[in-house]
Amino acid sequence: MPGSPAPADKSTAQRGVQRCINSSCGATFGLRERIYVCARCGETLEIDCGVNARVDGRALRDQWASRPARRAGSKAPRETSGVWRYLELLPFEADAPFITLFEGNTPLFEAPRSAEYCGLRALRLKHQGYNPTGSFKDTGMAAAMTQAVISGARTAVCASTGNTAASLAAYAARAGLRAAILLPRGQVSSSKLAQSLDYGALVLEIEGNFDACMRLVREIGDEPSVYVANSINPFRVEGQKTVAFEIMEQCNWCLPDHIVVPGGNMGNSTALGKGFQELLVLGLIDCLPKLSVIQAEGAAPLARLFANLDGQGRGRGEHIPEKLDPVENPQTLASAIKIGAPISWKKSLSAVLRSGGQVISVSEHEIADAKAMIGRDSIGCEPASATTVAGVRKLVAAGQIHRDDDVIAVLTGHALKDPDYMIRYHDGTLSFVAQKGSGPLRPLGGAFPNAPRRVAANKADILSSLERRQ
Ligand SMILES: [Zn+2]
């Protein structure tokens, strides 16, 4: 796909290059070149913004420490946004037209009930669902929409029915850009679309499936006025990598043993891997936390590949296989990770192997119970996020994580992204079919149901219900 011509450089808004991740290619492109894959070999790109051992990491850390997070009344993006707070490690200069909705600065919760459930002494949950549109996508979209404005685009486009669409719609509106979301006609759930419609996005229903939408997005991406913000966009990874910096500041620079994330399109694990790697290069941490990715059993192409890697292949990540066998009809109720052919799997796998982490899968049953347990910790999350706690429990049982280890699981979406799932879990009607078109729905029968109860309208019955509850 040829790059669109870059507009004349009128400011110093950016620094760095886009680099092909294929080490035998290694082609580099300017940041203003609007390409989304390597123009030479077709592989994905990543951004190199000059993070190297010559940069004074300690000075940077001191600078961040002196910069207030969320200063009341401040209009400076570096004092209100948890992404722009780390501008020194992003491919933008101080005069860039920063787009922000006060993303980042999300809480790191202690989760004692989930810890006990997993067999750990303690467990912390980093909740990216506290972002403006309720998902982790917002940190990446702040960077991608800033880049869209710099590149002179008028329309931002993506193919998505879920969190990406909501985030794109909000950030494009804030950037003064038109947002266009391409969807397969007749396969759209209104609950997932509600946010995009509310933020004013143009929702285009296409005759065809999701792959057809993706192809069309790539085709219209050649238009000079269009900016593509799908998962392949390397600027989104730059925004998302700041979560690693934020975690380390919240931990007072005491490195956790494990970081555990859900695995769908793998952008999140890729970004966290890049963030921690940059902190290592800067000398701000002396080793990497083990990064583990958890997939749902019905949508687990990377877990399957990982299980088949031999000891040598797991070594230090030098041998990333050429191909990933996709899952043709991915099935999971955790819709945010219902992805059979993840775009960023190579970058993600490389980050996992470099850190000594794992890629595993968990069942629908395990996800549902883990989600209820996170709820009992008064935290809540969307189903995909709960793969992490289910995965940690499994890794503890397998001896990969030890009882006293310092573990942080990353929750990616807010509980209210999928209220129907919660209602059905608690009233016992949540059900699942393992393969499309094969057999009846199987009820999941969760271990921690909490259905509403009917009570007669009098004080005595209410008091007796309260007593039974204790
Ligand atoms: Zn290349």
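^ zinc ion complex. Residues 20, 22, 25, 27, 38, 40-41, 43 surround zinc ion (CB under 6 Å). The longest strand covers residues 178-184.
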